[in-house]
Write a structure and sequence with these properties.
Structural class: alpha/beta
Helix content: 25-40%
Number of helices: 15
Number of strands: 22
Strand content: 15-25%
C-alpha cells in the first residue's frame, strides 16, 4: 500500500493554504505534504550562530507583514532574549508574528513560562506541539482549552527549525534559538533562500499552525503567499517534510542520495545510528565514491555515540573518511557529487527518520555545493580528528549493546 500524502502542485500553493485556513479542522494526515520541484533565486549556507543569527534577525526586523517561525528549541538567554525582543516589537507594530514550538524543546509551560507569557502579551501568537503527555490541552498558548486525550501524538516530537518572513524569505537549518548555538559550543548551519520555494515553507507552517489549534485570517492570504517569480535558469529546489506516518520524503531523499552518489558524498550528522543508512554509506565508499562523514568527537548523546562507533571499523575499512569534529557538531546536511544538496533537521537515527516532524530543503546547485565545501566540510576536515574505533572489551560490549537497540535511540 502506497503511503498517504497530500500532493500540492506548485501553482496551487496559495489555494491549498486557503483551504487550510478555512477548514473546520486540520488533521495530522493533512501534514503529509508532497510538493513539486520549485525554484530559488538565491541560496546561501551560513555556518555558526555568529554567522546566521544576525542576518536572520535582520530579516525579522525588516518584516512588513508576517514572521512565521517553527522552532524546536527557543529559550531565554543571550540570543533568545534578542529574538524575543525583535518578535515582540514586530508584533506590537502590527506585523503578524506566529510561532510553532515544541514542548520538550522549548518548555513553554514550566521553565520558560514567563518568557513565553511576555511574547503572548506582546501579541505573538504561539501554538505548541505536545508530544510527551497522554492528556493535554490544545489551541494557542494562553487560551483556556479543556484537556483531551493525546495518545496519538505521543513521541512525535516537532524537531523542525524554519523561518518564513513576509512569504518571501525562508530559512531552514539545524539550530535552535539557544545560547549554545550562538557561542560555538554547538556547530550548526542554516540555509537562507528566496524565490518560489518559500511558498512551500509557508504551506507547511500554515498546516502546522492550524493543526495545533491556531487561526489565521483569510484576509492575510495574499501577504503570506505573494507572487514570486524566478527566471528559467533559477536553482531547482523543493521542501521535504516528514510528518508522523508512512510518507517520509526526507528519509527517501537521503536513501536516494546515498545510493546514487557516483564521485563524492559529504555527510554531516550528529546522530548516525540507523543501520540501513550506515550500510548505504559503506556501500557508497566500496563502489569508489569519496565519502566524508563528519560527526562530533564529544557528542551530547553518549548512547547514540556508542551505537555509531560500533560501525566505525566497517566504515573505515570501506574507505569512509570519518572526521570527528572537536565540538558538538549538530548540523544535518548531505552533498552528493558536488551539486545535489540536502540540509535541514533530520538526523540519521530512527526517531528522526520515522517518527518526528522534520523539514529539509533539497537543492540542485553547484554554487551552493561549493559553499558547503568551502564554509563547512573543508574547514571541518582541517580541524577534525580521525574516527575512533571502540577498544577494550568493556567499550566494545557497550558499543555493540547500544547498536543492537539503535531503533529505540
Amino acid at each position: 500500500m502506497a503511503a498517504y500524502s497530500v500532493h500540492v502542485p506548485d501553482d496551487r500553493l496559495r489555494e491549498h493554504a486557503r483551504r487550510l485556513l478555512t477548514a473546520t479542522r486540520v488533521d495530522r494526515h493533512d501534514l503529509a505534504l508532497a510538493f513539486d520541484d520549485s525554484l530559488v533565486t538565491t541560496a546561501e549556507v551560513l555556518v555558526e550562530g555568529r554567522s546566521f543569527y544576525p542576518p536572520m534577525l535582520a530579516d525579522i526586523e525588516g518584516a512588513s507583514s508576517s514572521v512565521h517561525i517553527n522552532q524546536f528549541g527557543f529559550r531565554p538567554g543571550k540570543i533568545g532574549d534578542v529574538f524575543a525582543q525583535a518578535l515582540a516589537e514586530q508584533a506590537r507594530s502590527g506585523v503578524s508574528v506566529r510561532l510553532v514550538v515544541d514542548e520538550q524543546g522549548s518548555h513553554p509551560f514550566d521553565t520558560t513560562r514567563d518568557f513565553y507569557a511576555a511574547l503572548v502579551d506582546a501579541g505573538v501568537e504561539i501554538v505548541v506541539t505536545r508530544a510527551t503527555k497522554p492528556r493535554t490541552s490544545a489551541g494557542p498558548l494562553g487560551s483556556a482549552a479543556p484537556l483531551h486525550w493525546n495518545l496519538r501524538a505521543l513521541g512525535h516530537i516537532d524537531h523542525r527549525k524554519a523561518v518564513v518572513v513576509d512569504g518571501r524569505i525562508g530559512w531552514v537549518g539545524g539550530a535552535g534559538i539557544e545560547d549554545h548555538f550562538e557561542d560555538g559550543r554547538f556547530h550548526d548551519l542554516f540555509v537562507r533562500v528566496e524565490g518560489p520555494v518559500v511558498a512551500q515553507l509557508g504551506v507547511v507552517f500554515v498546516a502546522s499552525f492550524r493543526f495545533l489549534g491556531g487561526t489565521i485570517p483569510e484576509a492575510e492570504l495574499g501577504a503570506l503567499f505573494p507572487a514570486l517569480d524566478a527566471p528559467p535558469d533559477a536553482t531547482p529546489a523543493v521542501v521535504l517534510h516528514n510528518a508522523p506516518g508512512r510518507y517520509r520524503p526526507i528519509s527517501d531523499a537521503i536513501t536516494e542520495m546515498l545510493d546514487g552518489a557516483h564521485e563524492t558524498l559529504d555527510v554531516v550528522n550528529p546522530y548516525v545510528t540507523d543501520r540501513g543508512m550506515i550500510r548505504r554509506i559503506e556501500r557508497a565508499a566500496r563502489r569508489g565514491v569519496r565519502v566524508r562523514l563528519v560527526v562530533p568527537a564529544e557528542p551530547n548523546n553518549w548512547a547514540c555515540s556508542a551505537a555509531e562507533r560500533f560501525h566505525h571499523k566497517r566504515l573505515l575499512d570501506a574507505g569512509v573518511e570519518i572526521l570527528e569534529y572537536p565540538t558538538m557538531v549538530h548540523a544535518k546536511a548531505f552533498v552528493r557529487d558536488g551539486e545535489d544538496v540536502l540540509a535541514g533537521t533530520c538526523n540519521l537515527e530512527a526517531w528522526s527518520l520515522k517518527r518526528f516532524y522534520e523539514i529539509d530543503l533539497r537543492l540542485q546547485s553547484r554554487p551552493l555545493a561549493q559553499q558547503f565545501a568551502e564554509r563547512f566540510f573543508n574547514p571541518a576536515e582541517a580541524v577534525s580528528g580521525p574516527g575512533r574505533v571502540p577498544k577494550g572489551f568493556k567499550e566494545r560490549a557497550k558499543s555493540a549493546a547500544f547498536a543492537a537497540i539503535s531503533p529505540l535511540l
